[in-house]
Write a structure and sequence with these properties.
heterodimer; A: mainly alpha; 23 helices; 1% strand; B: mainly alpha; two-stranded antiparallel sheet; 6 helices; 2% strand; flat
Chain lengths: 502, 160
């Protein structure tokens, strides 16, 4: 089958009424949580996972994907109107977007952000469709040795690209791997680290774990600073950008889309890295960089295109290799696994409808977002006026019901609360939850491949460097680690992410 | 406002020191449990304990490095959530877990919402009650009727 056949199969799946409906629900919900500061797509996906078990696998992934890229759209609205990133990845949009809004150009900033996101969404849909298949073909030649090295590379890459202390990130990955071993060992059937609790026999429940470490912990963080007030710029006029403004934004949008697409595929990459990268690039390329920070349209167009592109291409490693590149992909993979589908190299041939349907739905969803976002602006502005104290009890309640309903089991809520507290303490100790979740999801797979590889080589660990592909991947991982440890680079990393704090 | 943590003049990054010690404890739990209760096997035929013990050793090593590097530096902290917020937010899901079977969905939801609401120091009774009523109604329609969650609206304890 060629690309066109595949895409038309995907379109046929994405355009089924049920899937269209879920695509819409996802994009709408995603925009809403993107708009609301303090409620992220991760917590939302974790809360909604249980609901998705009631619908078909393709509808559920289409909806979850919609939440993810919808949040990238919504985040920019908040960034522009109240100078607070609704989403971490729109932090840079806030810098110039809010300035534009203060100059009375809020409408222009919002529409440029939406147009940029749509263009990026279209381009990256094509890229995902084009690259997923060849990557799958390569992955099919991999054995357990290569898989182990690939996952190791993924984990290392995810920490070197993230912010904060490298040592702590490594520790978080190792802790995640250990938490992943909890439960029944698949080979021997013996219970590992379950403390004799029945609820842990199948391992730590991933939905409860994710909802705790992101949802509950976020709420506790939000309650630290209750007195903060915000000014909403709610007067938005001139939604259509002028011709000259469009021309000014065109090149940054194109560059941002490309950069975002590339950074999205990298393990640990995705929208956050993409938007920061694009901002830095536009500032360097600008003829008058002193306008940056004072309402430069390029500084809104580029990063907004980049974060949407990054959000979409981060599906590539998950769909074609079965390796989630960021925590959201990890949760989405969890959703598929619970539905009985394990993403990996043979996913595309065994479930072509889901595979291409999800890709096609991304474009459909982006179109919906473009149409939906600007006319519904009034609704989003109203949403911004919902006080924080109304939001957090609702989130706690939703998370409780959602997590409970996965297994109709109260024990899962205990896990959620426990990891909510752990997640909060971790954040206070400046340890990031993302590597922990990645390690947790990849843990069982890494262990399985490790055991199989070592069994094949009869206990000789040298096999990982004797096989050429595996050796290259491990060498890459080692180089990344060494480079990240160099003082000059680690200082630069700290600088890039310094604006990350909301 | 961020403020310094630890004793005045102390040259130790308290956050890193605590992180290291907690991680060392976690590594210890997995390593000791793995060695004493699980079969390690050999490198070519690994038992259930091999991988966890290997990773736990790595974690212990990393934790030690974090502890060593915490000396000679200082740390800032940005304040904590109030005990009230911690208590309310963490207790609410547990209340739901314990109450939903004996008392049913609706009363448990009301209790959960009320407890969670008062995690905020700026909550008023009026606001909390209105919010609770709204969210309870929404969740009942969504989860109980649309998604057919297998629990009763009002439990046996109340209806009999």
């Amino acid at each position: 089958m060629n690309l066109l056949d595949n895409l038309s199969l995907g379109m046929a799946t994405a355009l089924q009424p049920m899937n269209l409906l879920f695509c819409f629900i996802g994009a709408f919900l995603g925009t809403a949580v993107g708009v609301l500061p303090g409620v992220g797509p991760l917590a939302t996906i974790a809360m909604l996972l249980p609901i998705t078990f009631k619908v078909s696998p393709e509808a559920s992934v289409i909806m979850l994907a919609g939440i993810y890229y919808g949040a990238q759209y919504g985040g920019s609205t908040t960034a522009i109107l109240i100078n607070l990133p609704g989403e971490a990845s729109s932090a840079v949009t806030a810098i110039d977007g809010y300035q534009m809004a203060r100059q009375g150009r809020a409408g222009t900033a919002l529409s440029i952000a939406a147009i940029g996101s749509f263009f990026a969404g279209t381009l990256s849909t094509v890229l995902v469709a084009g690259f997923a298949a060849p990557l799958t073909a390569v992955a099919l030649t991999f054995g357990p040795v290569e898989y182990f090295s690939l996952m190791t590379l993924g984990l290392i890459a995810s920490i070197t690209l993230a912010n904060g202390s490298l040592l702590k990130a490594i520790a978080m990955i190792l802790l995640g791997l250990l938490l992943g071993t909890i439960g029944t060992d698949i080979y021997s059937g013996s219970a590992r680290f379950t403390l004799g609790l029945d609820g842990l026999a199948d391992g730590l429940p991933i939905v409860a774990f994710g909802a705790g470490i992101y949802g509950i912990a976020e709420i506790l963080l939000g309650l630290e600073h209750e007195t903060r007030t915000r000014t909403v710029i709610s007067k938005v006029t001139n939604l259509l950008p002028k011709r000259s403004e469009l021309r000014q934004a065109a090149a940054p949008i194109a560059r941002g889309s490309l950069l975002g697409s590339i950074l999205g595929v990298l393990p640990g990459g995705g929208p956050l890295l993409a938007s920061f990268g694009s901002y830095a690039m536009e500032k360097r390329l600008a003829t008058s960089p002193e306008r940056f920070g004072k309402g430069a349209i390029e500084a809104v167009a580029g990063p907004e295109a980049a974060n949407n592109a990054g959000a979409q291409t981060s599906f590539v490693p998950m769909l074609s290799l079965g390796i989630p590149s960021n925590p959201i992909m990890a949760l989405m993979m969890g959703a598929l696994i619970i539905q009985g589908i394990t993403p990996g190299p043979d996913f595309m041939t065994t479930h072509p409808g889901i595979f291409w349907g999800v890709i096609a739905s991304m474009w459909v969803g982006n179109l919906m977002l473009l149409v939906l976002n600007l006319p519904l602006l009034g609704l989003w502005v109203k949403l911004l006026k919902v006080p924080q104290r109304a939001l957090f009890p609702a989130i706690v309640a939703f998370a409780s019901v959602g997590v409970y309903s996965v297994n109709t089991n109260g024990f899962d809520l205990v896990v959620m609360v426990l990891f909510g507290f752990v997640g909060y303490v971790m954040t206070k100790l400046e340890c990031e939850p993302a590597p922990l979740l990645l390690g947790f999801v990849l843990g069982p797979m890494i262990e399985e491949y490790f055991r199989r590889a070592m069994a094949i080589s009869q206990g000789d660990a040298m096999v990982f460097v004797q096989r050429p592909i595996s050796a290259v991947m491990l060498a890459l991982a080692a180089i990344m680690l060494i480079v990240a440890l160099l003082p000059a680079i680690s200082q630069k990393r700290a600088e890039i992410f310094v604006e990350d704090e909301p | 406002m961020p403020r310094k943590v630890g004793a005045e003049g102390a040259r130790v990054n308290v956050l890193d020191l605590v992180t290291g010690i907690l991680l060392l404890g976690a590594a210890g739990f997995f390593a000791i449990n793995g060695v004493s209760r699980l079969n390690l096997g050999t490198a070519s035929s690994m038992g259930p304990g091999f991988f966890p013990v290997m990773i736990a050793t790595g974690l212990a090593f990393t934790a030690l490095l974090i502890i060593i590097r915490s000396f000679g530096a200082t740390s800032m902290i940005d304040g904590f959530a109030s005990p009230r917020a911690l208590l309310c937010i963490l207790a609410a899901p547990i209340v739901f877990a314990l109450g939903v079977e004996p008392f049913g969905f609706v009363p448990t939801m009301v209790a959960t919402m009320l407890i969670a609401s008062f995690g905020s120091s700026r909550m008023t009774w009026r606001f909390a009650l209105a919010l609770t009523a709204g969210i309870t109604l929404l969740c009942t329609i969504l989860f109980l009727y649309l998604l057919q969650m297998p629990v009763l609206a009002f439990g046996d304890l109340l209806s009999s």
